[in-house]
Input
Amino acid sequence: MQRLRGMSRVVKISGVAAALLVAAIVATSLAGNGGGGAPRTLPAARNFALRELGHPGRKVTLAAFAGRPVIVNFFASWCTPCKLETPTLARFYRESGGRTAVIGVDSNDETGPALRFVHSAGVRYPVGVDPLPAATTISYGVLALPQTFFLNARHRIVKRIFGAVTMKELSAGVALMDKGWPGASSAASATGQDPG
Output
């Protein structure tokens, strides 16, 4: 993973505090009731509204996917591991026929290189632009790229991947986020997973 470039000391300190808070929430929720059962509460994903990459008049919002599971991927064109991961995520999205919702968040990047990067990777899902101070990226506790969040239909975080995500991890994450969702069978069948 690569750390976000050009962040001021204050932004970095704020980011560390946010990351610690998110880590504490995740650790608490994963601890469950102490009996090894399912977690009591999954952490809620923060809503965001970002300018769409390549379409300055349009917005990419998490709220637009209300009631639907979604994968949120934080990346940048300058991030070396992202160069391996983004084509994989783009292929996963294409192979699911768009049944699995994906949002890319291009963090702390320049428009020209970002557009060239997503086009060469074959990205067809919406990509929001999160320029410095990368408020959305920081609000998710992301200090290094790439990172991927799997949200269920209530937009609660069911899984988080640090570093480049694989096809196997994408399929496993979709199976988790689909549990209990009425459209689970169609989304899971696109990935070859049993919705459980």
